[in-house]
C-alpha cells in the first residue's frame, strides 16, 4: 500500500501533504481521497483474515470515504483502481464498482463509466488494461473490455464491447480512429 501511495503522490506532485492540504491544493484533495481509499482496501483485506479485529477501523475509513466521495465528486470504489491510478483534476468522476482499472491509468474530470442496461449487478463490467488514458467528458458504457495503452478522446461515448491494445478511440458513438505506434 505504501508503494502505491508513493506512486500516486509522485504523480500528483505531493511533497508536503499537510502544507498543500491546508493551503487548499486540489492535488492534496485527490491524494487525500486516494489515501482513504487505499486504507479502506487494506482494512477489507485485513477483515477477511481477522473478522472482528478490523471491523471498527474499516467502518471509520469507509464512512470517511463516503463523505469524501460527495465532497470531491470522485466516485471510485475500493479495489477498482490499480497501482499508479491518476486523477488529473477534481471534478465529476463516476465508476463506483463497475470498472476495474489496470496500472497507470489516467482519468480526466467529467468522465462516466456506466451501464447500458440498468439493474444489472455484476461487479466490474468494464475492465481496462494498463496505461490507458481517458479524456475529459468521455463516457464508457458496460459491458466493455479495454486493452492496454488505449486512449479515449475527450467527449467520446464508448459503446464498443471490446477495444484492442494500442487503439485511439474517438467520436459519438466512439470508433477506433487509429492505432498508436509501438
Keywords:
182 residues, 4 helices, 5-stranded parallel β-sheet, single chain
Structural class: alpha/beta
Task: Please compute the radius of gyration using only Cα atoms.
Answer: 17 Å
Residue stretches low in confidence (pLDDT < 50, at least 5 long) are: none
Question: What proportion of the residues form beta strands (DSSP E)?
Answer: 15-25%
Description:
The protein is an alpha/beta fold and 182 residues long. It contains four helices and 15 strands. It has helices spanning 2-12, 17-22, 26-49, 55-72; strands spanning 74-75, 86-87, 93-94, 99-100, 106-107, 111-115, 126-128, 133-134, 139-142, 144-146, 151-152, 157-158, 162-163, 167-170, 175-179. The strands form three sheets. The chain has a six-stranded mixed β-sheet with strand order 2-5-8-11-14-15. A five-stranded parallel β-sheet has the order 1-3-6-9-12. Helix 1 runs antiparallel to helix 3 (26-49) and helix 3 (26-49) runs antiparallel to helix 4. The longest helix has 24 residues, at 26-49.
Amino acid at each position: 500500500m505504501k508503494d502505491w501511495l508513493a506512486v500516486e503522490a509522485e504523480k500528483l506532485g505531493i511533497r508536503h501533504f499537510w502544507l498543500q492540504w491546508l493551503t487548499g491544493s486540489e492535488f492534496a484533495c485527490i491524494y487525500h481521497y486516494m489515501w482513504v481509499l487505499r486504507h479502506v482496501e487494506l482494512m477489507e483485506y485485513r477483515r477477511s483474515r481477522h473478522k472482528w479485529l478490523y471491523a471498527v477501523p474499516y467502518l471509520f475509513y469507509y464512512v470517511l470515504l463516503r463523505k469524501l466521495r460527495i465532497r470531491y465528486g470522485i466516485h471510485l470504489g475500493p479495489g477498482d483502481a490499480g497501482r499508479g491510478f491518476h486523477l488529473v483534476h477534481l471534478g465529476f468522476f463516476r465508476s463506483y464498482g463497475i470498472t476495474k482499472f489496470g496500472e497507470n491509468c489516467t482519468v480526466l474530470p467529467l468522465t462516466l463509466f456506466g451501464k447500458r442496461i440498468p439493474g444489472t449487478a455484476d461487479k466490474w463490467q468494464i475492465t481496462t488494461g494498463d496505461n490507458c488514458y481517458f479524456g475529459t467528458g468521455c463516457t464508457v458504457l458496460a459491458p466493455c473490455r479495454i486493452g492496454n495503452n488505449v486512449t479515449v478522446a475527450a467527449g467520446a461515448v464508448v459503446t464498443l464491447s471490446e477495444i484492442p491494445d494500442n487503439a485511439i478511440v474517438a467520436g459519438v458513438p466512439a470508433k477506433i480512429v487509429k492505432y498508436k505506434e509501438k
